[in-house]
């Protein structure tokens, strides 16, 4: 005989919360427990009628409660963090869709065990607010002050602050590249998202006339082999002939970087199509697409295949840089200068040989050389010339605090005039990232911008850390490149008490806004076509409940 499982009021409320948390984290409709028959039958089978899943009103009630609990936990964590003399870092961006706009702000820090914490400090409804720099600044400071990160008190008329100390309690910021949030966050020591900046640099590379023409053809070929039945048949024959796995060229729909589709297509054609391209072109010349166009209109001829092949190798390093710097679960501030320096090194026209899968590829095509030159200029301009000296200094210190810095590639962003920009050349010469005795140093990050004096990054630390502790750190033996830097600092915190405190501060800064974009992905799921009745306030509290 089956016994009825009794559910106490306390257990019932706990189950209601668990179901609500599952709904917001997995982006399920909030009415699902009330209206989904199969969902209700599962619980009826388990509890024999002694428990009923929450209705929509109860789900909303629990979302508000979970949001309040998450906010309280975050306030407590930040209070403890500030008591340890560690300042948090923030990243922010704006999302809008279907008449709804949300201003999202995430907060980051490293705890005593060197675990990265990523929490939502605000998801502010912004549909009725002008997206100006001033409004974004006020919203950011107000949100931070609510969590004890400084104080922001406005006068009775609500325009002029009587107390404004938020910027003093934020170590660093990372924002979207839009001019409104950049101007709004100029009061903080921050930088623009590395992923977005790389995408803008690569856009400069792909927008060069010779490159644009080739990649437009590549997109046409991709559409042909994806949508033409005969084209797909010929492609399969080619792959069978060379014993390659059956696949089709990827569509140009990479929303992660905005340019990843071009790289993915170039890589696919390099690995699949280049083996037998001439035979396939001849066979496919007269085969029409559904829209009436023919493959011949998109046919790559002569050295255009060289442009695809060589471009793919340049874009590969940009793709790797994005993959490295978009992580928010691992520290990335220590990798910012080495990774961007490596990208600039790869883009520099003097280096004509690149490595790919153990093979050397020579960049000889003149169109690719011109595009590389523009890419190099843009990388130097965005990541070195336009970045505040204090932020470059922070990244340099973060690189120094990586014990694996002996493994950093020797790269240099200096010594070459930036073609077509004589004013930028002196500054470019001074932005120097190189491996020196295993410790990355950055030259001329301090002082007057016209000064030619160079500054070893260890000297930036000596004012804070006793010289003997710094000397012991710099004298450390070889540290393997596969060592987990966070685990290393956790185990070495006793030996380097002051440096470990600095490591928690400087390594906790994010290099990109990828975390905010992932939060917005959750918003998109909550605000799908089936759930557009959700209000901004409900989405705001749902995110707070899901992420905190």
From TrEMBL:
Q: Which GO terms describe its cellular component?
A: nucleus
Q: Which InterPro entries match?
A: HATC_C_dom, RNaseH-like_sf, ZnF_BED_domain_contain
Q: Give the classification, highest ranks.
A: Eukaryota, Viridiplantae, Chlorophyta, Pyramimonadophyceae, Pyramimonadales
Where does this one sit in the cell? Nucleus
Q: This protein is called what? A: HAT C-terminal dimerisation domain-containing protein
Task: Report the domain of life of the source organism.
Answer: Eukaryota
What is the protein's species of origin?
Cymbomonas tetramitiformis
Q: Where are the transmembrane segments?
A: none
Q: Which residues form the HAT C-terminal dimerisation domain?
A: 469-541
For molecular function, the Gene Ontology terms on record are:
protein dimerization activity; zinc ion binding
**What does the UniProt keyword field contain?**
Metal-binding, Nucleus, Zinc, Zinc-finger
């Amino acid at each position: 005989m089956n016994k009825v499982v009794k559910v106490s009021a306390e257990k019932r409320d706990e189950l209601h919360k668990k179901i609500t948390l599952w709904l917001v984290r997995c982006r399920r409709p909030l009415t699902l427990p009330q209206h989904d028959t199969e969902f209700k039958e599962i619980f009826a089978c388990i509890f024999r009628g002694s428990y009923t899943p929450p209705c929509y009103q109860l789900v909303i009630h629990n979302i508000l409660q979970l949001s309040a609990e998450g906010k309280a936990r975050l306030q407590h964590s930040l209070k403890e963090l500030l008591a340890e003399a560690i300042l948090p870092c923030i990243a922010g961006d704006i999302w809008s869709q279907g008449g709804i706009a949300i201003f999202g702000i995430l907060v980051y820090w490293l705890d005593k065990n060197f675990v990265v914490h990523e929490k939502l400090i605000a998801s502010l409804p912004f549909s009725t607010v002008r997206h100006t720099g001033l409004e974004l600044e006020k919203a950011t400071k107000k949100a931070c002050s609510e969590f004890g990160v400084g104080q922001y008190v406005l006068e009775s008329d609500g325009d002029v602050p009587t107390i404004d100390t938020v910027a003093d309690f934020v170590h660093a910021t990372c924002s979207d590249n839009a001019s409104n949030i950049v101007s709004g966050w100029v009061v903080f020591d921050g930088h623009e998202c590395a992923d977005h900046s790389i995408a803008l640099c690569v856009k400069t590379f792909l927008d060069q006339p010779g490159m644009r023409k080739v990649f437009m053809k590549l997109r046409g070929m991709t559409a042909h082999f994806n949508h033409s039945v005969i084209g797909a048949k010929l492609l399969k024959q080619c792959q069978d002939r060379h014993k390659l796995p059956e696949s089709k060229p990827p569509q140009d729909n990479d929303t992660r970087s905005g340019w990843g589709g071009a790289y993915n297509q170039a890589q696919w054609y390099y690995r699949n199509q280049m083996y037998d391209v001439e035979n396939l072109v001849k066979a496919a010349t007269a085969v029409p697409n559904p829209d009436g166009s023919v493959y011949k209109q998109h046919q790559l001829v002569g050295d255009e295949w060289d442009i695809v092949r060589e471009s793919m190798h340049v874009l590969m390093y940009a793709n790797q840089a994005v993959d490295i710097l978009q992580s928010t679960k691992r520290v990335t501030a220590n990798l910012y200068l080495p990774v961007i320096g490596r990208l600039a090194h790869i883009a520099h026209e003097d280096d004509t040989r690149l490595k790919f899968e153990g093979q050397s590829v020579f960049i000889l095509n003149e169109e690719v050389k011109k595009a590389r030159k523009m890419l190099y200029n843009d990388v130097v301009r965005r990541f070195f010339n336009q970045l505040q000296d204090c932020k470059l200094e922070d990244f340099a210190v973060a690189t120094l605090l990586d014990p694996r810095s002996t493994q950093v590639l020797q790269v240099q962003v200096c010594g070459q005039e930036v073609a077509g920009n004589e004013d930028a050349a002196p500054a470019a010469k001074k932005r120097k990232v190189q491996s020196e005795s295993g410790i990355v140093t950055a030259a001329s990050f301090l002082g007057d911008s016209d000064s030619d004096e160079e500054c070893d990054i260890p000297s930036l630390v000596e004012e804070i850390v006793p010289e003997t502790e710094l000397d012991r750190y710099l004298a450390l033996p070889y540290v393997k490149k596969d060592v987990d830097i966070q685990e290393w600092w956790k185990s070495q915190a006793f030996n380097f008490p002051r440096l470990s405190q600095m490591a928690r501060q400087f390594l906790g800064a994010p290099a990109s806004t990828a975390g905010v974009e992932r939060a917005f992905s959750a918003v998109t799921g909550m605000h799908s076509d089936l759930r557009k009745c959700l209000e901004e306030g409900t989405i705001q509290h749902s995110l707070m409940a899901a992420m905190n």
